[in-house]
User: What shape does this take?
Amino acid sequence: MKIGIIGDTEAGQSLAEGLLELGHEVMLGAHADSELKKWEKRTRSKNAHLGTTTEAASFAELAFLATAWRATEDVLQQIRPELAGKILIDITTPLEFEDDGPPTLALGHDISGGEMVQQSLPDSHVIKTLNFISHRHAVKPAFKDGKPAMFLCGNNPSVRLYVAELLGQMGWQHVTDIGGIEKSRLLEPLCALWIEYGLAHETWDHAFAVLDN
Assistant: This one.
């Protein structure tokens, strides 16, 4: 599959590398002034491509949104036409960073980042998932103490099923569909909790799991 990664963040680069390992053709969409040729060379894959965010959106059969939240609105305005009719998997969380202390959510109970992305892209199918896990574990997650859980939400049930199957191919064995894109209001605070746990335990190699009796 041709996959576009919208955003040249560490998360975007890491996700692109994982998807390349699974055999997909991937274009990493970077800002025009980014210097990511080293990434392109490091992957050593004929299926790795580098372009602008607009080019990556046009290239994609399916896209991932991996921008820093502060840049998301501007990027979405640029790529809206190219993503019409396509699936966009939103792995962002609307975090605000202060000089001291952990980041906080910029949005709360009334609307979520996922909903804002869907509103900005009314002709696209937005799925929120993978926003509360380290980018190092987004593909082929492996934890010694058990199998991590992943949740997803979006407005189109058939698209949610398709993305759940893709997550399975990426190594996620416990995927739960929790409904419409408004459920992003539940998933985005999970990222804040994930960060708080990481700060308390000085680790970024942790995940959430669901224990069934």
